[in-house]
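## Example pair
The file below holds two records. Each record gives the amino-acid sequence first, followed by its C-alpha cell line.
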Amino acid sequence: MESKNLLVNCFTRIDQNSWRDIDISLDFKVYPCCAYHGVHKMRKTFDDDRLDNLPEDWNSLKKHSIEEILEFWSMYLNDEYWSDINLCPKFCIKSCGNTKVDNRKKYE
C-alpha cells in the first residue's frame, strides 16, 4: 500500500476492505491499531476534532457490530485522507508519518 503520495505508511491497513491489526479494549471499544488505542486510553482524546466530537459509544461493540465500526474507520483512514494534508489525521502523521514525504520523521 505504500505510495509516494501518502503522508503516512499505515502498518495496519492492508487495503480498502481489510485490516491487519485491530485492537479491542477491555470495555469493548474497537481501534484500528495499538497507537490509536494507546493514545485514546491514556489521554482520553484522539487528538482529532472529528473523532473527539463523535458520541462516546461510536466504536463500542456493545452498540455496533465490528463490521460497522471498521467501516467507519475505513472511511476515515484511507489513501484519500492520507494523501491530503488537510484531511490526514494529525495523529496518523505523528505516529506513522512517511519519512519520504517532506522529511517527516517517524514518531518512536
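Second record, same layout:
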Amino acid sequence: MIEKGIRYHTPVLFNESLNGLHIQPAGVYVDVTFGGGGHSRGILQRLGSEGRLYGFDQDADTEANIPSDPRFTFVRSNFRYLPNFLRYHGETAVDGILADLGVSSHHFDDASRGFSFRFGDAVLDMRMNNRKGLTAAEIINTYSEDCLACLFYAYGELKSARRLASRIVAVRARKPVQTIDELLEALQPFTGKDREKKFLAQVFQSLRIETNAELEALGAFLTHTVNVLKTGGRCVIITYHSLEDRLVKNFFRTGNIEGTVEQDFYGNRTSPFRLVNNKVITPAQEETAKNPRARSAKLRIAEKV
C-alpha cells in the first residue's frame, strides 16, 4: 500500500491526466516519466489489488521516491526502451501510458545538475541520466560551429544561432567553457535586459534537448505505443514546448511523427489512434497562478483503435 504521512509535489494537470487514462481497477499501466512519483501515486490510488503499475525513469535520484507498494515496479531506463522492459516483466500489452515530458523542479533546483542558469558556478552537465553520455559542457566544447548553430536553431528556435555558435567557438578557443557562469559570460553580447531570461531559456533548452537526445527518444517512444497499448488503451501526454508538442500532435492524428496523412482505399484518413480531446487541455488559471511552470503545459489524450 502507499505510505502514509509522506507529502509529494502534485504534478501539473494532475486530475486531468489521471481522468484521461480512464483507469480500470484491474488494469496494467505505465508512468514512463516517474520523477517525483506524483502521477504514479495517483494511479495507484485508483487501482484495485489486481492492478499493476510500472514506473520508468533513467535518473537514479528518482529511486528515492519509489512507493512501497507490491503493485508497483520501478524500471531504471529511458522510455524509448518501453517494449523491451515490459516484455522482460512478462507484459504483452497495457491499458494505459502516461508521460509528463517536462523537466522536474528537482532538476532545476539542484545546482549540481547544471539545468538552470540561476546557479552560476555549477558545471554544465544537463544529463537526465548522469551516469553516461556527453555533458552539455562537452557539447559546447567539442561540437563544430555548424553543429552548434544547427542545434541552437532547431532546438532553441534562435534566429541568432549562427552568430551565437561563432561566438562560443571563439570563446572556447581561449579557454574551455565548463560552468554556467562561463557560458553566461560568452552569451553576454546577445542578452539584452528586455529579453535576457527568454533568450537564456532558449539556449539552455537547446543544450538540454541535445544532451539527452530528447526528441529522438520521444519519437521512439511514440512509435512503440502502438504495439504496447491494448485496443481501447489510452495514451496521455503532457508537453511543455512546441517541438515536443508538435511530435505528439502529429503522431496522435496520423500515426507518425512527421504528420503524414495516410488514407485507405476510400480516401478516409487512417490512424492507430482516436483523439479523446480534439482540443488541447491546458491548466486552469488557478493552477498557473500557483505554479508558473504550468503555463506552457498542454495535455493530449488518445485511445488506440
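Notes on the second record: The radius of gyration is 20 Å. Confidence is low (pLDDT under 50) at residues 1-8.
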